Automatic annotation (TrEMBL):
Organism annotation: Poecilia reticulata (Guppy)
Domain of life: Eukaryota
PANTHER family: HEME-BINDING PROTEIN 1 (PTHR11220:SF24), HEME-BINDING PROTEIN-RELATED (PTHR11220)
InterPro entries, alphabetized: Reg_factor_effector_dom_sf, SOUL_heme-bd
Protein family: Belongs to the HEBP family.
UniProt protein name: Heme-binding protein soul4
Xref: Pfam families: SOUL
């Protein structure tokens, strides 16, 4: 999708300060533009201590700490950062206006998903810490005892509270197992990680660009809601999904907000 929503105003500028640690942070270790005090001291990928220190510095700007036991997973995913399999889908409909795509309706396949839940003070912290658990699962802490590879997008749940604005802090972050493992899904060593088979899901997806904080995601929910029939009973009104594709350091980072179709 190509429609870019340009956000402005003090709340959005404040939201842009926060970022999400994810697979894409790892992808940009040797080429993304970080704050000057971080890029001035980027360590080579082969330097374990330097690599960990680098990511601890990055994480501190996100209000998240990276423990020393994450050194191995960070290195492993950095070495294998090109092994990302796109999650396929069936395009049901595309809605455009004046040549610009407003949103798409898609159907994603059934299959095994790997997920972790965290409940932190900030929505962004919950996503970041949940993904650290998924990193360890991907990097050999699984019954296959090997690096599993990765699919994109990485998705996180959004559950809106009764006030219609505030997000629940208990957040699930998940990815679809690569096709190689769909016929025999590895089990997790960590009891906090679930490997579950899920039925197909039908979503309405709209692209947006930038960070994925509670403020920016909330804004995007409102934008897509205004584009749809507000009385449409076919979509959930309090459950959404955020899908992340690109490097958070990129000026036009690609994300999507998904509205979930109800089962018929």
């Amino acid at each position: 999708m190509v429609l870019v929503l340009v956000l402005s105003g003090p709340q959005v500028r404040c939201a842009a300060v926060m970022a999400l640690i994810s697979l894409d942070d790892l992808e940009g270790l040797d080429d993304e533009q970080l704050d000057d005090d971080i890029t001035d001291n980027v360590e080579p990928m082969g330097d374990e201590d330097g690599l960990l220190s680098h990511w601890q510095a990055v994480a501190s700007t996100h209000q998240v700490s990276v423990p020393t036991e994450m050194t191995g997973p960070i290195q492993e995913m950095t070495r294998n950062r090109q092994q990302r399999e796109p999650l396929s889908f069936v395009l049901i409909a595309r809605h455009e206006k004046m040549g610009e795509v407003l949103y798409e309706e898609r159907r994603y396949p059934a299959g095994f998903w790997v997920s972790a839940r965290r409940s932190e003070d900030l929505y962004e912290q919950s996503i970041s810490l949940a993904f650290m658990k998924l990193m360890r699962f991907i990097c050999k802490e699984n019954s296959a005892g090997r690096y599993l590879g990765m699919t994109v997008p990485v998705v996180s749940s959004v559950q809106v509270m009764e006030d219609g604005e505030t997000f629940e802090k208990n957040v699930e972050t998940a990815f679809f197992l690569p096709s190689e493992f769909q016929s025999s899904a590895p089990r997790s060593i960590d009891p906090d990680i679930s490997v579950t088979y899920r039925e197909p899901i039908r979503v309405i997806a709209r692209t947006f660009y930038g960070t994925t904080t509670e403020q920016t995601v909330g804004w995007q929910i409102r934008v897509l809601r205004e584009l749809l029939d507000p009385g449409d009973p076919g979509v959930h009104g309090d459950r959404y999904i955020v899908a992340v594709y690109d490097n958070p350091g990129a000026p036009q980072r690609r994300n999507e907000i998904w509205f979930i179709r109800r089962e018929p």
